Amino acid sequence: MARGDQRERASRKQVARLLLWIVLVLATASPLIDPSLVQAEPTVPPGPLAAEWGVAIDPLQCPVARTGTPRASCLARVPADQEAIAPDGTWWRLRFADSAHAADWVARLLRSPGIRELEPAVRLSYQWTPGDPLVAQQDWLRVAGFPNAWDDTIGRVDVVVAVIDSGVAASHPDLAGKLLPGYDYLHRDSEPDDEVGHGTAVAGIIAAAADGQGITGGAPGVRLLPLKVGDQSGASSLLIAEAIYGAIERGAQVINLSLGADTPSATLERAIEQAYDQGIVVVAAAGNTPDAVTFPASYPEVIAVGGATADGKRLASFSSRLTRVDLIAPAENVLTTSWDGQEPGWEPRTGTSFAAPIVSAAAALVRSIAPDSSVEWVRQALRETAQPLDPPGQPGAGSGLLSASDAVERAVLRRFAQAWQRADLPVAAGQATRSWVWGPSAFAVGREPYAETHAGTRAVAYFDKARLELTDPDKPPSDPWSVTSGLLAKELITGLEQVGDATFVPRQPAAVPVAGDPDDPNGPTYATLAAVLGAPPSGEGETIVQTIDRAGQVGSDERLAGYDVRAGPLVPETGHRVASVFWEFLQRTDVVYEAGGFTTDRLFWPLFAVTGFPITEAYWTRAKVGGIERDVLVQCFERRCLTYTPDNPPGWRVELGNVGQHYYRWRYGTVPTGPVTNDPVALAPVDSGGRG
Under the phi-then-psi rule, with left for phi > 0, alpha for psi from -120 to 50, and beta for the rest, what region is 162? Predict the structure, then answer.
């Protein structure tokens, strides 16, 4: 067959394939959604993304301009966001406003000689579910609430759990790559091999790898520090104390002690006190004798763990009733890694020795989300979220059954609270007089779809003026981008609901008032501003007199020059100038809560972290404020819209709109009444070192 015939045949196949794709896309494209019909937890099914297409171009017939922003000549007229995928400019991503526009322009592009190939993007869902074959037999994972906890974290690789025990079998396939260099205090060498199997079982419960074989540990993302202190006969309290000091030196955040005796040791107690003072969570087994007191579990610095039945409904018959117990975890038939000295395997184990590492795994997950939390805060998070037994208050059961998912959720709330408290705690505490940045308290907390997270969802908290998102649980709380507020205003104006870094669900722009009273029938809405997204910037220093009405009509009113509001600095990222009153507002210093106390500092820093970059110019409008029609200046940024009402009292003239409420109503159709907590400060816990 001639080469020309081959190309013609390939071209016919391409056209036929594309026509089929277009039919499928149009058949599966979601219609524009009425906000009143949106359910509380929207899901986006896998499949074609009707508004997003990949394009391969012929660089000879479609030259690429490389000065400034790269542009392909054959795509110049296409009304879509365009990004080069391939470094050489041969592959592009086109993102249209909706599927109808996409279908129309795809049909046109098929006729362009510069187009080699077209295909719609396909949504791939992130879903983290361990594929290890024995997970189905690990009832303890479900009973203790680990699967839901994994939605937020499977444990950070820099979180280290010290296993002070009989050693760990480094050759076990479920522990491969999980072990840091450890130490054998019994034989004084760097090979803490397990000759008993007890330490290997403990290690597997904490962090067995999610690798498609065997089991999955409660915190499969963390690392283990094996410190061998004993053999078949048990372990010396002096060696255990020495190993604790070794764990401190090696940077452990959690120490598991699945061993105990009925006789206290001052040396061991002092070592545990040192670990506690260094902020290390020490977890110990309560013991397997109902009428005995067990140490080190009974020391006050230790999180003591009793044993529950396999179903978690009762206290195990063998668990100590006299030891001071914080909470219980499954201790019967706990499937875990095994080692007989020759062959690795998996087998069920029974005893509080195997309840303790379940709690250690949960503590490691909490520490992964809240690495700066004190020992007492971790203990409180585990105890207060534990599920009470029926009847409650049983001796030896402590606060009840461990709920890893609820404890991790408490840690997530802490991350939101830390972002909230810097700006809004001064208002709640009466230390500052200004408008809220986030809002007085969260009115909704939950999870929303997001493609790039390992679970396909992420934790969010809605406040009046924002939605806080836990974008990356693995980032430390000090990272200003670990918790962000989302590009809510941009979504409301464009109608593109963001469910991934570059994944959007097309909706109608929000017909919600952007300025003034929420029931104002005449003021502009977010949808109004869609008409001016591409407007050119005002001249530098120019007095702002341009107006906009609800219909999106732009005009001017020289009367407004009397307010003397001018066009301020140009933001090159988006090509818009910030109105002078808003620029002054963003530059202000005020009382903030920082490092455990009140101080005066930049309120908005980094500069555009709270607002995002401006996406419109500033426009005057007439809107009802407190039931009275007034002049209001409005300018929208990516994250929220700012308003300036000259008639308001000083300190309240510039306001951050209730974009959190507006967005929630647009996305879900209604806004919950009442806060998640009546005490906003309760979402902002403050603690200090190990003793908290």
Answer: beta
